[in-house]
Amino acid sequence: MNAQPPRIHSATFDPIPRDATPLVVFDLDGTLVDTAPDLTGALNYCLAEAGLPSLDVDAVRPHAGRGARAILQLGFSAAGITADETCLTNQLPRFLDRYNAHIADASMPFSGAVDALERLRGAGFKLAICTNKMEALARRLLVELQIAGYFSAICGSDTFAGRKPDPVHLLGTVSLAGGSAPVSIMVGDTDTDMEAARRAGLRSVLVDFGYDPCPAAHEKADLVVSRFSEIDASTLLRLIETVSAD
Ligand SMILES: O=C(O)COP(=O)(O)O
Ligand SMILES: [Mg+2]
Questions:
Q1: Cα 213 to ligand 1 centroid, rounded to whole Å
Q2: Which ligand is the nearest neighbour of the Cα of 212?
Q3: Gap between the Cα atoms of 220 and 58, Å rounded
Q4: Ligand 1 atom at minimum distance from 70 CA
Q5: Which phi-psi region, left, alpha or beta, contains residue 2 (left: φ > 0; alpha: ψ -120 to 50)?
Q6: Is ligand 1 within 6 A of the CB of residue 131?
Q7: Each residue's pLDDT tens digit, 133-188
Q8: Which residues are catalytic?
Q9: Cα separation, 148 vs 136, whole angstroms
Q10: Per the confidence metrics, is the pTM higher than 0.90?
């Protein structure tokens, strides 16, 4: 059983509805789950089929949040080959089939992530996923990791007409989760996430252990954390109230 939604002391701040349940929207790759190992596995499968050398996971990790095409491009360019659109379009189904079949072989939630989900749910927060992964892949990963049940909505790059940083993606996720933007927070690892939050009018938390915590992402984030233990109910409620009072 979930606890009662925490009280947000918002009486003086328009437009937060008094009875709104706070919502935390998580990015997936590089934020909740370290997906780089299985993305690297799918890449190396394609490279091997093409007779090209494999890449180490550490070489792929900084690019792991940029989608399958970018990861394929990285692998081919490391072998000195410029992969044109036709090459990428040909490789993509192979990559995605392999990834789909091995999506949780070695991918793991980051340290403290599941405890944070448990803690926030216990404190009455709603939780959701807004990822630029395709929705079916995101769902499969979360189910295989046995954490899908935490989320009121799981929205991927193909769920709505736009994807992050298009605010349509984030606002659609908030709406599907039954949340309200003024009491919602985006937690992510890239500038794409921080920019989506800014455009959608959500508070933002940057995890600096993710795949691409660049200076622009730091600049846009309302809060930067280095571990999940820093993400607790009181910190997030304070963030909602503080920014609301601006
Ligand atoms: O797969 C991607 O393109 C990125 O996924 P993310 O939005 O969960 O980081
Ligand atoms: Mg990410």
A1: 14
A2: 2
A3: 26
A4: 3
A5: beta
A6: yes
A7: 999 999 999 999 999 999 999 999 999 999 999 999 999 999 999 999 999 999 99
A8: 27
A9: 12
A10: yes
